[in-house]
Amino acid sequence: MRSAPLLAVALFGFLSACNPADDKQAQPTETQIPPAEKLFINGRIYTANSGREFMTSMALRGDEIVGVGNIVGNKETFDGLIGQGTEIIDLGGKLVLPGLHDAHLHPIGAMPIPSCNVENTPMTLKEIVDFANGCLAEDDMAEDEWITIELWNFAAGNQPGKEFKTIREALDAVSSEKPVILLGSDGHHYAVNSVALARAKNDAGETVGFSAATLETDFAELAPYIGLDDAGEPNGKLTEDYALTSIGAGNLLNAGIEKRRASPELMMDVTLPRGITSFLDAAADPNTLDIYDRLIANDAFHARAHLALYYDPGAYANDNGAVDYDRLLSDARMIRTKYERTPNIDANFLKLFADGVIEGDPLSDPPTLPNAAFSRDYLQPIFEWDEKSQWIKVTGYVDTDSELCATTREAMNGEETLDIAAFKIENGFHPSQCAKSNGVLQHPEDIIMNYVRRGDAAGFTFHIHAIGDRGVETALNAIENAQATNGTHNNHIITHLQVVRPDDIDRFAANDIFASFTFAWAVMDPQYDTTVIPFIDRVDGPNGIYEPNGYYLQNGYPAESIRAAGATLIAGSDAPVDTKDPRPFVNIEAAVSRSISDLPPMNISQAISMFDAIDAYTINAAKALKQDNIVGSIEPGKKADFIILDQDLFKLAENGRAKDISETQVLETWLGGKKVYAADE
């Protein structure tokens, strides 16, 4: 923003009084304070201080804020700060916020490299084939061993048609010679073609492929993670990383890493245009941290980064399942030590997955159940394709407690072979839908407990992924036990919190645990919700999937309840999950309205105030990242990290225009007193 002349008489007089008229007086003495280098005036500056105050002006010197106040009504704030060379910048009434903190970001994965990227757009199977073929026709897109397509929307679209009945058939049309994989937009769901399925190796290292037969033998433990067609064969859909390892695709989770290494500056394109000055790399891969090192070496790193190092405890286990925590934590300490003297980067966090995901797959036969750890068994809905809506609907439920299901489970667990087609004709559902499951923890509970206890004792702060209510409860138990055993107070973070038991709400504040939400997901999304709610609540009543008294709607993303109980809320995008854009203002809109895209709100009682939403992105997240002593609010003595916006979020909310918050644009991003992004440049 250009320098402005002295616009107001009051300000002119104040500055004149602060500037000595002759050179002798202008010479600073040892006791004089150096003048501010920049004075921002005529703004609406939300300080995010303890009083949640707004100010009109702030002064900077070097990388610090040295004065905040109101020029006309509080001139003494700036006494002695204004000198002949102080640059005056007129904010023109614009809203200024502290620099945003994304407390759950995967910045390397979100880097905008050239790729075949579906961008989470719901597509029919035919449209997926057309997109893939068009993308692969472009230069350099089909040279790798695998054909990889990113940000596939696993929960919406994927409708079958005359050409393709399953995603496997569709991807076979993309290539019958090379393996093809769709990387789901959530990082937990995938889809592959027949070539990829045929690559599956069993524990003996033999290539036997995924099939109906091997899912009963070689891969029986993986069967719940493999989608099936109506003949019982894999339909191409896979859930979680276990199956990827079997088909030799585990390295594809870092698809495009060399392109990212070649253009490390793209990381700043993820953060700075969105006003993000600090972030938690929520699952930092030790093998890709050289991207940070390259940015630093090029003097091109403009952020305050905190690395939540991801180590799979299972990778440190011996043949008996005992985890070598000493070796794991030794590896983590080496990286922590490496960055101790690196400005603006630390590696003081550890990432842990308590459970998986809560989406099932209604388009599989039988429907694949959610695997997030839940407090009760998932329901077994009976789905039917609805030609009118071109989506599935629930027509009933399997009574898993019935005598029929009891005998069916017994038969399936024995050596008896069931005639699946005849069973379905007679009973109206697949015999596998008699199965009972309440999901799984990502690791045995004792490993979760021990890892958190040992990591906490080593001074690390955990960032724990927990989605199902039993996953959340387990994470709370682990933190509670670790702090009681170690006598520590590391203020750990639990993230996602898609479903939380009412009995666990108070435990966040009691244990000083930060509750991390991606608010853009706490909204109605009819196609997505059909992959979740029918497995938790009966939806065959008059209110359909949005039964207000249902367990999911009552306990889904309970942000306001956790806040009202005294805990601290923080916000994170989880980008590139769902989208590579961290979209902070979409998240803020959803936080205050529980709605985006003009849909009705999801459980409006869990909406939070604009102040709470902004604080979740600023001072609260700064506390969670243990840097609130230097950033997170606009106060004297703190670093000059702030952003200038084109809209006043507070006024939008006050005037009933919350749906416009998501359109907000960042005009400027400042880090340490330097303008590191300007929209007009």
Index terms:
six-stranded mixed β-sheet, 681 residues, alpha/beta, Urease, subunit C, domain 1, Metal-dep_hydrolase_composite, Amidohydro_3, 3 domains
Structural summary, described in words:
With 681 residues, this protein is an alpha/beta fold. The protein has three domains: 136 residues, Urease, subunit C, domain 1, CATH 2.30.40.10; 131 residues, no CATH class; 275 residues, Metal-dependent hydrolases (TIM Barrel), CATH 3.20.20.140. Strands 8-14-15-16-19-20-21-22 form an eight-stranded parallel sheet. A hairpin with a 2-residue loop joins β4 and β5. α3 packs parallel to α4.
Please describe the biggest sheet, giving its number of strands, its sense, and whether it closes into a barrel. 8 strands, parallel
Low-confidence stretches: 1-30
Shape: globular
Strand percentage? 15-25%
Radius of gyration: 27 Å
Q: What is the mean predicted local confidence, pLDDT? A: 91
- Strand line-up of the largest beta sheet: 8-14-15-16-19-20-21-22
Helix content: 25-40%
The CATH architecture designation of the largest domain is Alpha-Beta Barrel
* Count of distinct structural domains: 3
Query: Quick one: CATH class of the largest domain?
Result: Alpha Beta
Chart the SSEs and their pairings.
Elements: H1 9-18, H2 23-26, E1 38-41, E2 44-46, E3 54-55, E4 57-61, E5 64-69, E6 87-90, E7 95-98, E8 100-105, H3 125-136, E9 147-152, H4 167-174, E10 180-184, E11 189-192, H5 194-197, H6 212-216, E12 226-228, E13 234-239, H7 242-246, H8 257-262, H9 266-271, E14 276-284, H10 290-297, E15 304-310, H11 325-338, E16 345-353, E17 381-386, E18 391-397, H12 403-413, H13 420-427, H14 445-457, E19 461-466, H15 469-486, E20 493-496, H16 507-510, E21 514-517, H17 526-530, H18 551-555, H19 559-564, E22 569-571, H20 584-593, H21 610-617, H22 619-624, E23 642-645, H23 649-654, E24 666-671, E25 674-678
Parallel strand pairs: 1-6, 2-7, 8-14, 9-10, 14-15, 15-16, 16-19, 19-20, 20-21, 21-22
Antiparallel strand pairs: 1-4, 2-3, 4-5, 7-23, 10-11, 11-13, 12-13, 17-18, 23-24, 24-25
Helix pairs in contact: 3-4, 14-15, 20-21
